[in-house]
Amino acid sequence: MPTPILDFDALAQDIARRTVLCIGDIMLDEFVYGEVSRISPEAPAPVIAAQRSEIHIGGAGNVARNVASLGARCIFVGLVGEDDAGARLKAALEEQAGIESVLVCDPSRPTTRKVRFVSEHFSTHMLRADWEQALPASDAVETRLIEAILPQIARADIVLLSDYAKGVLTARVIRHTIDAARKLGKPVIVDPKSLNWAIYRGATLLTPNRKEFSEATRSRADTTQSIVDASEDVMRLADCEAILVTQGEHGMTLVPRVGKAVHVPAFPVKVRDVSGAGDTVAAALAVSIAAGADWDTALRVANAAAAVAVGKQGTASVSAAELRRKILPHAYLAAEEKIVLEPGALDAQLAEWKRLGQRVGFTNGCFDILHPGHVKVLTAARAACDRLVVGLNSDARCGG
């Protein structure tokens, strides 16, 4: 039976009215792009000829960015140090539309910072350098985090815990947050890092990747059935309603406590960078569930969002428009979305298709009266490429 077409526009309108409270470990992501053509004479190490660099809000901050770019409002609570990286994150968050940040400062620890050296041409990560102190927040900082979190829960439609094991989501912070959210009837999504899922007890949905799931459940997790079997016990342990296991190019499997498991295959895309793809999945799930989507719809939205994210370089965020184009069959897109009026927009679209490795074709003509010859030309041209650009000749060009 074919999958029904999702009413994405109605969902997007509901998402725009929702607020997500995101709590977790924020970090500064820096990407240095260049190429390697020689080995250092000083040591057997490659020398990267740096060409450009980019700074992004990473970790749980990237989840917040994705929530906002998908159209919802985000309240973000995190922890930074009293340093340059922390100041840069504060400034970057202030510039992000749709995000209200509540940052607790701990002068005793550095702001987490990650610098990745990436091949510009091959999108290959060659080296990563980390500045961090991956230790639980002190008792005093825990208390400040809890005091920052609790007043925000009533303002949100859903709570999202993005755990990178850098110290924000201690057992005490998690417990206070989940208990308060459940008391107010707010669903809680957890992107877990701890292998002891009992600390997330009471959450609505856990979203581990396959490696995390396998380690937490001590199972192979190599088939849908093995994931279903291993999920039963841990769902009772964590008292959650569902578990979603992300499996990269193998898709996603959602196992609800009530009902049948659902597996969706990954979209066929050219992967450029998987950095932050899990953040995008968590954000897409949160905004969908906040808007009242069922498990199946939320899963499909998250799967499509992941496909868009891995096709981008760096720690990427996904817009509602990008998600719409990915999740809806091309024939269901509005006619005006297929018309390019500005040369710059066409250049951007061509660059995106080429970046994805798609073959682009072009044909043109005067189609004021469409006849069988036109249809034959268009059909043949479309069969020879992945994407076809059709140029419409003006009356002057046609001699009219």
In CATH, the topology of the largest domain is named UDP-N-acetylmuramoyl-L-alanine:D-glutamate ligase
| Helical residues, percent | 25-40%
- The number of domains is 2
Q: Which regions contain 5 or more consecutive residues with pLDDT less than 50?
A: none
Please identify the structural class as seen in this structure: alpha/beta
CATH architecture descriptor text of the largest domain? 3-Layer(aba) Sandwich
Write the CATH homologous superfamily of the largest domain.
Answer: Ribokinase
Short synopsis of the structure:
This protein has 400 residues and is of the alpha/beta class. 37% of the residues lie in helices and 25% in strands.
Q: Would you write up a description of this structure?
A:
It is a single chain. The chain is of the alpha/beta class. The protein is built from 13 helices and 15 strands. The chain has a nine-stranded mixed beta sheet with strand order 5-4-1-8-9-10-11-12-13, with helices on both faces. Strands 3-2-6-7 form a four-stranded mixed beta sheet. A two-stranded parallel ribbon has the order 14-15. Helix 2 packs across helix 8, helix 8 packs antiparallel against helix 9 and helix 9 crosses helix 10 (320-327). The longest helix has 16 residues, at 295-310.
